[in-house]
Design brief:
Strand order of the largest sheet: 2-1-5
Structural class: alpha+beta
Largest sheet: 3 strands, antiparallel
Number of helices: 3
Distance between the termini: 28 Å
Number of domains: 2
Order of helices and strands: EEEEEEEHEHHEE
Strand content: 25-35%
């Protein structure tokens, strides 16, 4: 799940520090589904099965009319059920047959990926021949936002700008 967006009418609800986010399994990465970054995502790291969830507790009553779950599309056979909690504290099914609307990404996410690494304190990436992306890094270094810092034994060290 790259992003989970909640709407009231045509307006997306802004993320609020009062929101409590939980997930099962892998509760540690759930905030990645709420960070507005197209290159981060929450993952269960397990095959999909009943009982897995991502939950948003608004901390107060909040009207919402729709939810958009943005994902990479690798979960075609995964069924999603949407539930909401009423004012009485009871869970109610909202939809167990959500509409699927493919929206291909038409922009390069290379620079965004490097910005995420840099934001986490990573300043360099080392690539060896055979690593996924090795040739792409070499061919499109400016698009990745990296410069070649050095080479050794065929491996390349790139500095993130």
């Amino acid at each position: 799940m790259a992003e989970l967006r909640i709407f009231d009418g045509s307006s997306e609800l802004p993320r609020d520090p009062a929101w409590r986010l939980t997930a099962h399994p892998n509760p540690w990465d759930v905030q990645l589904a709420f960070d507005n970054s197209p290159v981060t995502r929450w993952r269960s790291w397990q095959p999909a099965e009943p009982g897995m969830y991502v939950e948003v507790d608004f901390g107060r009553l909040q009207a919402a009319s729709s939810v958009a779950v943005e994902s990479s599309g690798g979960n075609i056979n995964t069924k999603i059920a949407l539930q909401g909690m009423g004012a009485d504290g009871q869970w109610i099914p909202i939809s167990d047959h959500p509409a699927s609307i493919p929206r291909p990404i038409n922009a390069s996410l290379r620079m965004a990926a490097m910005a995420e690494l840099k934001a986490r304190g990573i300043g360099y990436v080392f690539m060896r021949p055979g690593d996924f992306g090795f040739d792409d890094f070499a061919k499109y270094s400016p698009a990745w936002g990296v410069t070649l810092a050095g080479e050794t034994n065929g491996g390349r060290l790139y500095r993130i700008r």
